[in-house]
Amino acid sequence: MSASPRTRVLISGASIAGPALAHWLGRYGFEVTVVELAPALRGGGQNVDFRGRTHLTVLERMGVLEELRALDTGGSPLAFVDQEGRQLLHLPADFAGGELEIPRGELAQVLYRHGNSRAEYVFGDSVEALEETPSGVRVAFRRGAPREFDLVIGADGLHSTVRRLAFGPEQRFVRHLGYYAATWQLPNDDGLPVGGVGLNVPGRLMSVGADHRDPARAGAFCVFASPELRYDRHDIRQQKGLIRAAFAGLGWRVPQLLRSLDAAPELYFDSISRADVPSWSIGRVALLGDAACGATIGGMGTGTAVVAAYVLAGELALAGGDHRAAFARYEELLRGYARGCQKGGDRTGPFLAPRTATGLRVRNGLLNRRWVLNRMLELGKQVSSVELPDYPALLEARVSAAG
Asked: What residue ranges are annotated as transmembrane (predicted)?
């Protein structure tokens, strides 16, 4: 199915949004290049989930739903305990895992496999400068030679380089929500079960659970309240020091988990923040996923990114080369939807690590009632659902009519 001329599109970022967009644009006949700073697809990371009919419909239209169902973890239950290990709250698997939960790295691999034959992937490089010309965008790269593209899409996350270069400095668009989060891997020497169990004290959560695929491995996850910190995002040693300082003096398994940081080969550490960009496009450059409307945790960012990629590609294909019309329609269809999903991210830090003992007691008291959990799950499905055009069918009908 080809519904566009060979428009050259550069996508910055190969996490989730980038490969999803590359899949659709390649399917519609665009000439796609994806550039990624990492030397290869990133593995690991937290499990990500999909919920509601919109998420599942888009995955089905991509042709990946059944493959992802085979990778479904079944969800990740989470128990909260006090410093003596006494259980305070138990959240069942379906609460955190939605209708479909997949390790983030495995999702990235599936999306890559389904689109890499129609796209050029360049790893170990990144965008350094953008210059819009009368006919396109001239892009300078950190390592590769400059190239010109018709369109550039920033799918490079909350700390987007494309957004900084085309729209302005990060501090204009990204707001700190008062918490930090981190994850890392460690050996499962204690035979921990799948899911997670975590110590909750005011303003702090430290949890650990077995890996869904490899019971010999475990994953640690922590959240702590803090004003905005100044640190080097590329200095893992410094970030480990911030985690140790935040959790010093706590009991339960915390000292053991902090010691495991020394041998952790990879660490994810970031603020819980959200991105709000007044317009998702400027000229021939547009933003996608977390770069446009991100929420670090709890904002249904993965599902929103996959849905947004579907809409952006569909509108570009329908517009027949008119990127201004396509970008405007893309934002018109999705801005309200994305904002609704983002609101969940605003509540993530206070939900996981309430700042006061009273806040902890209130949360535990409410969520120990199953009807409250059921209501929250239903609201999540409603928020994540939106009516969208059936772009493959529309474009197929157009091709048939032209033929």
From this structure: none
